[in-house]
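Milestone 3.1: sequence recovery, worked example.
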């Protein structure tokens, strides 16, 4: 992998690799890792800390993990879930981005423009996502939020904390929350 001169400023720091012996080396300083033990030399395996990984390589890793997961737990029935909140000019003023799989809704992002917060739009978006998840056959929701965002908002809507990371970032905390969904008589597909 050659350094790409097209990155901002025309210079990109070279990739760094860890040799099988655990030594850091710049990619342009080693054509191939030089293990210190013969056993390692035979393996031809080394750790490569990629500063700019290709989409192809990332997708290859995802697909390998998905194949393993399917073999262990069955098809995940993965579907993206995106719900927008728009104003009269069709501008996005809020939304939910997540996905459904293995009977869970994973909320990755929920955002409402500051100008319209406190008017019930966050609840509206989350409720719409939950209803769609139930329609897809989900039984649970999982999400994360920071202490400076909205843990109390989610708790008021029935979410329960199952994990907290301190010092993430700094004096703040990262909260992991979940909620069991109630199926409705109009429940549809599978997630």
């Amino acid at each position: 992998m050659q350094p790409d001169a097209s990155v901002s400023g025309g210079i990109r720091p070279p990739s760094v690799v860890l040799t099988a012996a655990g030594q850091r080396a710049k990619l342009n300083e080693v054509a191939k890792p030089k293990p210190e033990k013969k056993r390692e030399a035979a393996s031809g395996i080394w750790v490569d800390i990629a500063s700019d990984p290709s989409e192809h390589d990332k997708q290859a890793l995802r697909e390998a993990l998905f194949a393993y997961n399917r073999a262990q737990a069955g098809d995940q029935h993965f579907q993206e879930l995106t719900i927008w909140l728009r104003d009269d000019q069709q501008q996005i003023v809020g939304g939910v981005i997540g996905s459904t799989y293995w009977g869970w809704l994973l909320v990755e992002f929920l955002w409402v423009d500051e100008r319209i917060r406190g008017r019930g739009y966050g609840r509206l978006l989350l409720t719409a996502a939950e209803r769609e998840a139930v329609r897809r056959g989900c039984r649970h929701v999982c999400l994360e939020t920071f202490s400076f965002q909205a843990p109390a908002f989610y708790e008021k809507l029935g979410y329960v904390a199952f994990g907290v990371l301190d010092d993430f970032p700094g004096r703040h905390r990262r909260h992991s929350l979940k909620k069991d969904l109630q199926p409705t008589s109009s429940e549809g597909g599978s997630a």
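The radius of gyration is 23 Å. Residues 58 and 64 are 10 Å apart (CA to CA).
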